[in-house]
Design brief:
Strand order of the largest sheet: 3-2-1-4-5-7-6
Oligomer: single chain
Radius of gyration: 18 Å
Number of domains: 1
Distance between the termini: 54 Å
Helix content: 40-55%
Number of strands: 7
Low-confidence stretches: none
Length: about 240
Amino acid sequence: MKTSIYDRIREKDRTIARETTGREDYFLLSPTRASLMRALKPLIEKHVRGRVLDAGAGSKAYAARLSEFAAEYVSLDVTVERAMPSVVGSVLGLPFADASFDTVFCSQVLEHVPEPATAVREIARVLVPGGTLLLTAPHLAYLHNEPHDYFRFTSHGLRHLCVSAGLEVEEIRPAGGLLSFLGHIPSVAGKALLRPVPLVYDCFLLLNGYWSRMVAWLDERLERRKLFALNYIVVARKSG
């Protein structure tokens, strides 16, 4: 089947992301990543403690940041294609005993899970009493990782999933908005088109980092109600 220009650009973007995973500049590849990390950073510092599960870790982009605050870092994913996780498994049936983790971090995973309510219940099960879930999920996003792209979430939907699983929601905050969503397009297209020209590409990456920071900064200050929230971050705690 013939691939479109859009598909080729997305594939190049995924390649660039894999090359920078684990480095700080990974979060400056586009305003979407920058706005999410800008909002997540203080919450990771505040809430990540003890034995930590990175549920749906993917390429383990957050491993270094989470490990700073964890007594033990455990990554889980259904595949070993992007990075070797500590444990291969699904969030729909976590291969851990009850009350195994002090913190569960789950970022941009629920949209790829056909039964998100089951995943949140499993996360609640493996949390110790008083343990914390730090969860992010998209509200506004283009199709990606097809065909396993099932859902988008409002803050109300995420609250319902957590409360139904027996978790107490402490906070839900938006991360990024329409400006970051639109700013993602020139960022991704520019990297894909200029990648074959090494020196020009390196210059673009530098400028793109400033672009991503600027757009994320502006997005925090515009349309504070965030009707067009790009992502939501949930902090929830297991009672006890």
